[in-house]
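User: Study the chain.
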Amino acid sequence: MKTKFNINQFNVEGYEPHEVHPLSFPFFTFAYMIEGEALVEIDGKSILLSPGQFILAPENSTIVIKHFNCRKGFNGRFSIDFLKDASYQILRSTTPTIQSFWFDDAVFMAALMKRMVVANEDRDHHFLQSALDLIIGQLRPKDKVAVVPEKFLQMVFDSNKAPLSVSEYAEMLNVTANYLNKTVKSHTHRTAIDWIEIARLNQAKMLLKDRSVPIVDVAVRCGLDDQSYFSRFFKKKTGMTPSQFRNSL
């Protein structure tokens, strides 16, 4: 372990799907969202991050970014021996901790993170230790992620399977389609069909990058047997037909 602390600022416009590879570090990892959204999977648990949210993942967590849109914020990592005070109970948690900051607190967190980036470049360890101590001291254990939305997002973003319909996912989760829509919308601010379409579009873009896969097969592998419907769906979402998208790569 060479780096005891590191922080980076990110500002990604839009989303271009890519092969997702699990990441794991022998450090605590953290992120703070300012704008956009990010769907991450940590040790098999799907978590949707929104603006104003800070997440702290335990050491050696396996992290996969499944989806993001216009992501702006900060991420970093640190080892426990970098801290001034390692006695916080939250550091003993075996699951990720998420904390939401609102209004003035959110503005303060964004400013603090920017200052931490500068301090990291200047190797101002004293300031970084004090900033981490301040942040960790505000974190509180939260209730577990809602089971139904979590499992739904895991299934929808399984790249090895074609996205299904809302009713099919509801049946697999032993709930009604109406309940699935309501609980997903309540916890993610998007409907179940919104997430299905996002996953379908991401999967289509990935498959279209492989020119050896005929477009008719891309449609089927994305869960749409009707190629003409697939083309209309893709053009509505991207402004291009599948062929135009493939030729633009």
Remarks:
- Residues 147-248 form a domain with the Arc Repressor Mutant, subunit A fold (CATH 1.10.10.60).
- The chain is about 40% helix and 20% strand.
- The beta strands are 5-12, 23-24, 28-42, 45-49, 53-57, 62-78, 97-100.
